[in-house]
Amino acid sequence: MASLRTDRLDIALELAGPDDGPVVVVVHGWPDAPRGFAQLARRLQASGFRTVTPYLRGSGPTRFRSDTTARDGSGVALAQDAIDLADRLGL
User: Fold this and answer.
1) In 58-90, which positions are buried (b, 16+ CB within 10 angstroms) versus exposed (e)?
2) Omega before 31 cis (within 30°)?
3) Taking the model in full, what pTM does it have?
4) What is the average pLDDT across 65-82?
């Protein structure tokens, strides 16, 4: 499993599909987990897409980098995490 560091999180993520394929970020909700989108991700990969499936804050092996970071699971916080992930990946 890959991981990526942002200012707030060490985000665990699954990468699959062709390295040169267009990228689709498959983001789960709460209380779902990335595995819930495994069938969708496989179909995207079979169609030539590269999938990035992160474990959002509070799920799986993703961890906060600081004990002082507020544990916020609001939609705004999750959206910012996805933006930070995309920025870090250069998308």
Assistant:
1) ebbebeeeeeeeeeeeeeeebebbeebbeeeee
2) yes
3) 0.87
4) 89
At 83, the pLDDT band (50, 70, 90 cuts) reads very high
The C-alpha angle 91, 87, 12, rounded to 5 degrees, equals 100
CA-to-CA dists, residue 81 to 20, 43, 56, 91, angstroms: 24, 25, 8, 14
| Dmax (CA) of the chain | 42
CA distance 17 to 45: 5
How far apart (Å, rounded) are the C-alpha atoms in residues 39 and 11?
22
For residue 53, count other CB atoms closer than 10 A to its CB: 22
Q: Is the pLDDT of residue 10 over 90?
A: yes
Residue in the block written with tokens 């942002």: 6
- What span, in angstroms and rounded, lies between the C-alpha atoms of 60 and 46? 26
